[in-house]
Amino acid sequence: MDYRFTIIVVHRNGVALISRCLEALQSIVSNNDHVVVVDNGSSDQSIERIKSEFQEVEVIENGCNNGFAAANNQVLSRGNSHYFLLLNNDVVVDSQLLEQIVSTFDQYPRAAVVSPQLCSANGDAQRSSKHFMQPIDEVLPGFARRKKALPADSEVVQVDSVIGACMAVRASAINEAGILDEEFFFYFEETEWCNRFYKNEYTVLLDKRILVIHEKGYSTRSVRNEAQIEMLNSRLIYYRKVFNPVVAMMLTVYRVFRILINFIFASIILVFTLGMIKRGRKNWMRYGSQLAWLAIGRPRSWGLPDKCPLQ
To answer: What's the gap between Cα 168 and its chain centre?
Structure first.
């Protein structure tokens, strides 16, 4: 059966969040839509809650942490929908979300991605899109090319990439550009995907008329140091995937050198403050763990916990 939408919610713990997310989805899906929760090894009562309270929802139990890209690909690879909606478990959707997305896709036939405006619970707009990384951005952060602000008077804006918390993707575009790159475990996967869509002559849109609530950063709040290692790994992978080999190597060397300098300064501050400043201790731990990870060959077992074995 070809669905209108398949909605994919990658989930790992946070039973209250997934319940709230699925309750909101109940009010927007039709008989021609399908909701799939891909559970990445939850250790709370999430799976039991979903199965008992949301029996129409399909649950894929990985039993371990399969990452963001691979978990979504477990469903994307089926190719049995006109559109796929990738949704974080900390997002609450509006009742007209799907109809509004379809309308925008119809209006822009070469759009591969339509993403709504992300908002906090109090209505404040969150960053919902981003520019493609340029080498100068990495070397001179804050002093690089000036980013153009999104047009304030435009309701639908073409952007480089979107924040992957809530992104709708046209299945025909996936057929041409491919599914998510599973070499990315967490971070940068949606940016690299959007880059591929552009290479296949599609566009990526932010529709500011569509609003969803996003509890930003919940999934990595308790594992910040591990998440920083994961982000560093994905950044280095992104260099290799997007830039030519010489540029990728130069950026990698620069990134490692920058971490080393930051660790040295963090160590000096730690000594002079006798470790009494909490932020100083955190910085020393963050840069030290990243250097250790690099020094022993970037082991996959570091970073976010409980990863599934490679297939």
So the answer is: 13
